[in-house]
Amino acid sequence: QLQFVESGGGLVQPGGSLRLSCLASGFTLDFHAVGWFRQAPGKEREGVSCIGSSGSSTNYADSVKGRFTISRDNAKNTVYLQMNFLKPEDTAVYYCAATLRVCSTLDSEYDYWGQGTQVTVSS
Predict the structure, then answer these.
(1) What is the pairing mode between strands 68-73 and 18-25?
(2) Is the dihedral of CA 89, 39, 110, 53 positive or negative?
(3) How would DSSP label each residue in the chain?
(4) What is the per-residue pLDDT across 36-94, written as a single tens digit (0 to 9) for each?
(5) Residue 103 CB neighbours (<10 A)
(6) Are 63 and 98 in contact (CB under 8 A)?
């Protein structure tokens, strides 16, 4: 069974940090680009970051540049999103997704999705 499981979300104060993890099971991530998306209440899902299959290419939404870092450990079949200096506007459900294509901000380009993990930034 192909499965993508996110973890690491929670409640954090503004300025705090969280590290999200995305573990794939049932398939190998070695050949997949992996993206992180988020969806806040009442808003459309948006791309946050993406990492290529080798890990050598990454991209970020302007809103998170300099604060978030995406990385991957193919040996562990896991992709991470380190989130620092969190702001209330980062509050959303965060999803990871995988594609055999190159990184894209279009969620229609992704084949596998996790169930999401809630991130809440509030004092």
Answers:
(1) unpaired
(2) positive
(3) --EEEEE--EEE-TT--EEEEEEEESS--TT-EEEEEEE-TTS--EEEEEE-TTSS-EEE-TTTTTTEEEEEEGGGTEEEEEE-S--GGG-EEEEEEEESS---S-GGG--EE---EEEEE--
(4) 999 999 999 999 999 999 988 999 999 999 999 999 999 999 999 999 999 999 999 99
(5) 20
(6) no
